[in-house]
């Protein structure tokens, strides 16, 4: 029996709901132009989930009735169409239906976002020990949905690309700090000053001192959502609801001329590791939680509460010291809290910061940079 032609209105619906992209999971290639020659054209093929005939791929007794049904059709590129029909055991009908639904639901979600919900993806990375972080724009863009969508097709990169330097190197922080300040001034500051950015989605992975410095550059004036890499479950998004946090401030017994802040959130820092560097005549304030560990930060409420408590702590310390007295920071904290600390610091009112970093190769904590 001859195959029934697919009505034009069904083809149009398929093109619209697939956004003209291949619905094979993981392909997503546009089918309205040749990716090699960039020439325009119709490079799509309409594939049947249940074969158009009983003896076709995935065909059964309902094949004839489903020939023109939208629910039984997928828009595919030629390569993927051949792949599913040549290997029908690998691609059963239920799997293809799932892929079709996921693809069309994603397109519906993305196109339903209002235009004023655009966000600029800003990335910052620097080597941490032997780890060299990599950020893929398309991967990160998924973490904006459904509240925002990318404002442009590339991210604003603030780090030193493919840096060969490691945080154990003597000049590492000097080089990375200069790159951060220069890239911020050239790539991001002009967009902010010209009001071309409505919202920033920030993804960062770097040593704590550089993250704190990044926070001071962004400050709390701009509309920034800080994305936190969560290990379990693996994501870059903090939950909107859920856990709050019982942050604790431990004040020093005596007030000396020197003052330090011990931030023990992702791990415990013993005070003797600080006095070994600054001397016994140092007042140490400690900000901690009941059970510090490296994946405690899960919710936006925990981050908001940290912002409130660190602002309170800055004011509390400043009451006992002049604004010219440097505050030494010893951080063991999640990425988002380090950035938020920098955003909460007020350059005209708060004490200068001297930030330390821990590196076992360099025998513990060492001074990295000053923020004035």
| N-to-C series of helices and strands | HEEHHEHEEHEHEEEHEHEHEE
Count the DSSP helices. 9
% residues in beta strands: 15-25%
**Overall 3D form:** elongated
Q: First CA to last CA: what distance? A: 82 Å
**Strand neighbour order, sheet with most strands:** 8-10-9-11-12-13
Radius of gyration: 27 Å
What is the residue-mean pLDDT, rounded to a whole number? 93
Largest sheet: 6 strands, mixed
Given helix and strand content, the structural type is alpha/beta
Number of individual domains:
3
pLDDT < 50 runs, ≥5 residues: none
Task: Count the beta strands.
Answer: 13
Helicity, in percent? 25-40%
Note the quaternary state here. Answer: single chain
């Amino acid at each position: 029996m001859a195959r029934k032609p697919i009505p034009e209105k069904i083809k149009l619906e398929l093109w619209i709901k697939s956004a003209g992209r291949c619905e094979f999971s993981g392909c997503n290639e546009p089918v309205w132009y040749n990716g090699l020659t960039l020439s325009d054209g119709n490079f799509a093929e309409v594939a049947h989930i249940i074969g158009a005939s009983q003896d076709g791929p995935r065909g059964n007794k309902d094949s004839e009735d489903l020939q023109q049904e939208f629910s039984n059709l997928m828009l595919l590129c030629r390569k993927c169409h051949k792949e599913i029909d040549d290997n029908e055991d690998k691609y059963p009908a239920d799997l293809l239906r799932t892929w079709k639904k996921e693809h069309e639901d994603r397109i519906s979600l993305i196109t339903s976002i209002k235009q004023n919900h655009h966000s600029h993806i800003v990335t910052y990375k620097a080597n941490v020990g032997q780890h060299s972080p990599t950020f893929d724009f398309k991967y990160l863009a998924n973490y904006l949905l459904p509240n925002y969508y990318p404002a442009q097709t590339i991210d604003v990169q603030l780090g030193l690309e493919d840096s060969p330097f490691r945080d154990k190197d003597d000049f590492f922080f000097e080089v990375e700090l200069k790159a951060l300040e220069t890239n911020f001034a050239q790539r991001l500051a002009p967009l902010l000053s010209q009001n071309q950015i409505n919202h920033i989605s920030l993804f960062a992975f770097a040593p704590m001192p550089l993250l704190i410095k990044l926070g001071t550059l962004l400050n709390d004036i701009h509309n920034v959502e800080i994305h936190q890499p969560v290990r379990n479950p693996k994501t870059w998004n903090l939950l909107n609801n859920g856990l709050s946090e019982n942050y604790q401030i431990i004040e020093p017994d005596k007030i000396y001329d020197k003052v330090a802040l011990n931030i023990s959130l992702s791990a415990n820092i013993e005070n003797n590791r600080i006095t070994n560097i600054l001397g016994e005549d140092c007042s140490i304030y400690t900000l901690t939680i009941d059970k510090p560990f490296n994946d405690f930060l899960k919710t936006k409420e925990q981050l908001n509460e940290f912002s409130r408590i660190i602002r309170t702590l800055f004011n509390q310390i400043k009451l006992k010291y002049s604004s010219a007295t440097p505050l030494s920071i010893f951080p063991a904290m999640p990425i988002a809290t380090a950035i938020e600390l920098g955003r909460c610091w007020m350059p005209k009112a708060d004490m200068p910061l001297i930030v330390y970093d821990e590196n076992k190769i360099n025998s513990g904590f060492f001074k990295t940079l000053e923020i004035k």
